[in-house]
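Hey Z.,

So I finally got round to the heme C thing we talked about over coffee. Here's the setup:
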Amino acid sequence: MIGLVFSLAPLSAGDKGNVELPKDFHSWNHVKSMVIFDKTSPFYGFHHVYVNDKGLKAMKKAEPYPDGTVFVAPFYDLVMEEGSYNQGPLVQTVIMKKNKKFAVTDGWAYEAYKAGDPIPQVGTPEAAVEACHNCHAGQEKTDFIFSKNMNE
Ligand code: HEC
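And the result:
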């Protein structure tokens, strides 16, 4: 991918942002994967969506997500090799954590991290409104989550 999905002014080192990057999400529940071929799209490349156990239960029952639900989506470059499309290096990781204190974004804390960079890219609930939530807001019927579990 050519850059970040969202270009925001980076914060300082040590800032915790809206959500810290979970370290163990690769062993969580895989929800879906997607490849976007359009190089002009900010979502160009491979991505996977993971959810923790708390969120998976609600997703299966199509209920609103409880506080503590976390969705993580790492984005990777797309590499064409010997006739196949392969997942390339990590570009960035986006996170949504359900937390009713984040009222300005309807109860979701949004954050994004560039590959190898511990500095959060969104930083505050207010910054997340324009950078993230305005687009997710259309998914109100599914508690602002786009993904549906594809592994049934
Ligand atoms: C232009 C629209 C748009 C913006 C802006 C946007 N997203 Fe998303 N987001 C999507 C779409 C579409 C999906 C579903 C991708 C899929 O189906 O694999 C998604 C999926 C996600 C997911 C997986 C859970 C879900 O809803 O499926 C997370 C986590 C996420 N986005 C976080 C963020 C964060 C953090 C930001 C801001 C830094 C952000 N998004 C900004 C459109 C957007």
